[in-house]
Specification:
The protein has 7 helices and 10 strands. By secondary structure, it is of the alpha+beta class. The strands form 2 sheets. The chain has a 7-stranded antiparallel β-sheet. The radius of gyration is 18 Å and the shape is globular.
């Protein structure tokens, strides 16, 4: 789906006012199914071979570095609709900080309230340093661990005060919804109070090009992924020179654009 001007204006307005927006139809049904099936398979394989990241006494599972675990994940981080809306927050050029999954299982407790740029000394700048896109691979409900947020908290320009935490609200929606949010928005994984339902979500995390990426792609990326990467993915990985000369190899180029 290519986002229309009216839909883009709505999404940008909501991002500015409340710190998040919801998109529908950004991912085609077949692609969505492949994303979920691949994630379920990879998550099970990691548990079986002992490389899993399971926590909450076995209730929740993270699956990291998904660029190495299926071509479908390479495609989703380059989704035109998602990147267009992310660009409203981060500007024309930005990087892929990480792509991972969060599987919230029955009995899982709420994650601590945080923003995705809490490592930045406060006060935060008035603009987003990072942004996240959550792809709902299942319906999100208050019962199955939907992401909970404090709407408008991105305007506070600081991390949460744990001595005086506000109430959060769940962000619910049908499978296929994409939630895009400002890096300073306070949020958390919600509790999963269901008897048997696992809630699968994909997190595509982006950052300004002068920020350090969460995943060190230069060390962890499968060489086969780099070899087949599109020009857009190469840029997202940080393998091109950014304005001002960041990311140079052997100094600035002698020919062509230097800055």
């Amino acid at each position: 789906m290519t986002i229309g001007s009216d839909e883009l204006q709505r999404a940008c307005r909501e991002l500015d006012e409340q710190g998040y927006t919801l998109l529908s139809g950004a991912i085609e049904a077949g692609e969505l199914q492949e994303l979920r099936e691949t994630l379920v398979r990879v998550a099970a394989e990691e548990i079986e071979n002992g490389t899993d990241y399971v926590y909450e006494n076995g209730s929740n599972q993270r699956v990291w570095t998904l660029l190495n675990k299926g071509a479908v994940f390479e495609r989703v981080v380059q989704n035109d609709t998602i990147l267009t809306v992310i660009g409203h927050l981060l500007g024309r050029i930005f990087l892929l900080s990480n792509v991972n999954a969060n599987i919230a299982g029955p009995g899982g407790q709420p994650m601590f309230l945080h923003s995705d740029q809490d490592y930045v000394p406060p006060p935060f700048p008035a603009y987003a340093l990072v942004a996240n896109a959550i792809v709902f691979l299942d319906d999100f409900s208050a019962e199955n661990g939907a992401t909970r947020i404090v709407p408008g908290s991105h305007k506070l320009l600081c991390r949460p005060d744990y001595s005086n935490l506000p109430e959060t609200v769940p962000v619910t929606g049908p499978r296929g919804t994409v939630m895009i949010f400002h890096g300073a928005l306070w949020h958390q994984t919600g509790p999963n109070t269901t008897a048997s339902d696992k809630r699968h979500a994909l997190l595509c995390y982006y950052c300004r090009p002068f920020m350090r990426q969460q995943e060190n792609w230069f060390l962890s990326l499968d060489p086969a992924v780099r070899a087949r990467a599109t020009p857009r993915l190469v840029e997202l990985l940080g393998h091109t020179i950014y304005l001002g000369g960041l990311g140079a190899v052997g100094g600035l180029p002698r020919e062509g654009m230097r800055f």
